[in-house]
Every structure is written in structure tokens, then in C-alpha cells.
Amino acid sequence: MSTIKKTLQNYPDISFIENKTLETVVNEMINDFTAKYEEETGRTISLTEANPDRLILYAAALQIYQVYQYIDHAGKQSLLKYSYGDFLENIGALKQINRNEGNAATVQLMFELSGEQPSIITIPMGTRATAGDGIYFYTKETAQIKAGKVKVTVTAVCDKIGSKYNGYVAGSINTLVTPIAFVSKVSNVDISTGGSDREEDDSLAENIYLAPSSYSVAGPGDAYKYWVKHYNSSITDVYVDTPEPCKVDIRFILNDGELPNETLANEVLAYISDGTKRPQTDYVSVGAPTLADYDIDLIYYINTSDANKAATIQSEVNIAIQSYISWQKAVIGRDINPSYLISKIVDAGAKRVEIISPVFEAIPNTALANHVSKNIIYGGLEDD
User: Fold this and answer.
1) What is the pLDDT of residue 226?
2) Cα separation of the two ends of the chain
3) Strand 367-382 to strand 290-303: parallel, antiparallel, or no bridges (unpaired)?
4) 3-state SS of the chain?
5) Within the chain, what is the greatest distance between any pair of CA atoms?
6) Which of 255-264, 284-293, 315-324, 363-372 has the lowest mean pLDDT?
7) Under a CB-based contact definition with an 8 Å cutoff, are residues 362 and 321 in contact?
8) Mean pLDDT to the nearest integer, 213-239
9) Domain named Baseplate protein J-like barrel: which ranges (predicted)?
10) Of 163, 171, 233, 280, which has fewest CB within 10 angstroms of its CB?
């Protein structure tokens, strides 16, 4: 469950129809009918289960209850706790918050000449390169290779939006699409990152919730957190530290606990350094969290009574371990907690677990738990 969902769950539940149920509506209609019948005729009437009038009332109650549901749904869409989709975007409009439609991945491209030249060679803004898969990265600014030099590195951005364009490994973008005299080679020197898909409802709801923090220059930690997450929807967690007065240390991670590269960190720093976001007296640094490495080494056992589904349980245990790894790297500063790993493995169907590592470790608030290796042994069946 996301952080914002947990936060909003603490707010009171609201019903715009006084928590009416279908049974309540049916009973109210039957009571109203019998009361009116007695008022008009002077006689009492009992509507048995098979009474035609009761069946008609029940059919009408179904339609009326459906209307109640529409009313309740419409009312709840004006509340952040329940809102989603276009309704959520309209709540955002009240605070001038828009859904992020996605970001393009960026990468550092190195252009290399065939040899030293007597004059400057210009790499124009918009120069394109590709990995040969029909996806292009183009330079964001003009770069120059000075006389006597043979290389220059410049930031390039993908021509398509989305997280699927992250992960081009160094050296894979190596085909120059825009010909430039004397340029013989191009290649990316880092992994493409920063690409994100259309912002999901949880992220948008969190930005709306944090929006009041943005009304003043980003002195409060929540304000810095808001602006960092607002820059790119692939940013999933932010930690803001003030190690000493007027110094702000910001660490952030991307989807699935991915670490930002230096290019993205510098872009975020430039974005929040705007005079409308950062106090002039604050010295701000932005980067990835440090890594707190851990290994997983364990043996688990299954009850003999579960022997017929042992293969399924083994598969579920592997899924549980992977889920634990994802959980550990979802939040900066989350302590390495083997107890949670044990609970997930037992919930997956194991009888018991012997953990060699990890051991509990309280990691710094600016660090991220980083799984290095795993050794998972199935110890076999044991009597219940």
C-alpha cells in the first residue's frame, strides 16, 4: 500500500447516503407502502415473500438503490480519499496541480572526432543518435569540440516519453543519425534514465496532498519533497535532510528503487533552485542515496501435510522473497528487517525459516537497502 493511501485511510469514512444498504431501501419501501395502504383503506396488509406487490417494490428498490450508489459515488469523487481518474485531476485543478503526462529518458552522449581539427567543431542542438531500434536520442543543447580536442559529452533526450526507454546500457546508442563533418563516433557513456509513464493516481493524489507545502518557498521538508516529486513522475521516494543550518541534502529514488544518475540529479537541482522554490539562504545538494548492502542466505521447510502442493509453495516462496527485496528498496532509510522476510515466506506456505542473513540493521536515513546476492535452500518436508 502506498504512503498516501495509508495517510488518507486515517481520515474518517464518509457516506453521502447515510450508509444505506439495499436491504435498508427495501424495508423502507415496504414500510412506507404498508403505512400508506392502511392510511388510505383503513386496513392493514402483510406483504409475504411471494406477494406480487412486494416483488414490485423489490424491483423498484434495486433501481432506487442504484441511484443512491451514483449519488454516493459522485459525492466521494470530490474527496481526495476516494477520488480517481478525471475526478482526481479536477481536484488537482483547485490547487493548480496537473497530472504529469510522462517524461523522456535522458542520457549522456559522447561525440568523438576522427582526429584533431584546427577549428571548433559544432554539435548542433537536436543532433540525433540511435541504438538501431528506431528510438532516437537528440541533444538538448549545442556543444562544441574545441580546436585540438577530439571529444565532447552532451545531454541527449529520448524522442519518446515513457519508462520503457530507460536502461540503454553504456555504448549501446552508437549510431549517428545526423551526419556531422569529422565526427566519426558517438556513444552513450551512461545508462539512460529518468523516463516515466503517465502519472498514476497514487502519485497525483500525493502531490495534491502536499500542494499546500508549495505555497511558500521550499523551506519546509515537505515543500522540497513536493517539488522534487513534481519534477518527474518516476521519482517515487524523497528524503530531505538538514545536516546543519541552511544546508539541505536531498536524496531520491525512481520506480522499483532505481537510483538516479548524475544527469537527472542535476536536472532536479536546477529545477528546485528556481528562486520561487528555494530560499536564497539554502545551500542544496541533490543525489542518490548511499547503498546499504545485504545478502539473503536462508533455508526454509514445508509441512509434510502440504507435500502435495510443495512445488507451488516453493514458487510462492520465491515470489515472496522477490517481493521482500522490492519492499526493502521502495523507501529511503528503511531498515533491513529479516522479520518481515520471515513473515512473507511463512505467509507463502513455508513451515519455518532459518535465516543466516540478513540480520537486522538500522540504516541511515539517507541510505537505501541494496540486495547483493541470495542463496535460497529448500530444506525439504518436516512433520507438522
Assistant:
1) 85
2) 33
3) parallel
4) CCHHHHHHHCCCCCCCCCCCCHHHHHHHHHHHHHHHHHHHHCCCCCCCCCCHHHHHHHHHHHHHHHHHHHHHHHHHCCCCCCCCHHHHHHHHHCCCCCCCCCEEEEEEEEEEECCCCCCCEEECCCCEEECCCCCEEEECCCEEECCCCCEEEEEEEEEEECHHHCCCCCCCCCEECCCCCCEEEEEECCCCECCECCCCHHHHHHHHHHHHHHHCCCCCHHHHHHHHHHHCCCEEEEEEEEEECCEEEEEEEEHHHCCCCHHHHHHHHHHHCCCCCCCCCCEEEEECCEEEEEEEEEEEEEEHHHHHHHHHHHHHHHHHHHHHHHHHCCCCCCCECHHHHHHHHHHCCCCEEEEEECCCECCCCCEEEEEEEEEEEEEEEECC
5) 112
6) 255-264
7) no
8) 79
9) 113-195
10) 280
C-alpha cell at 109: 552522449
Mean pLDDT, residues 11-35 = 94
The whole model's pTM is what? 0.61
Bridge partners (DSSP) listed for residue 357: 297
344 vs 86: CA distance, rounded Å: 36
- How far from 218 is each of 205, 249, 290, CA to CA, in Å? 20, 13, 24
Chain position carrying cell 517481493: 323
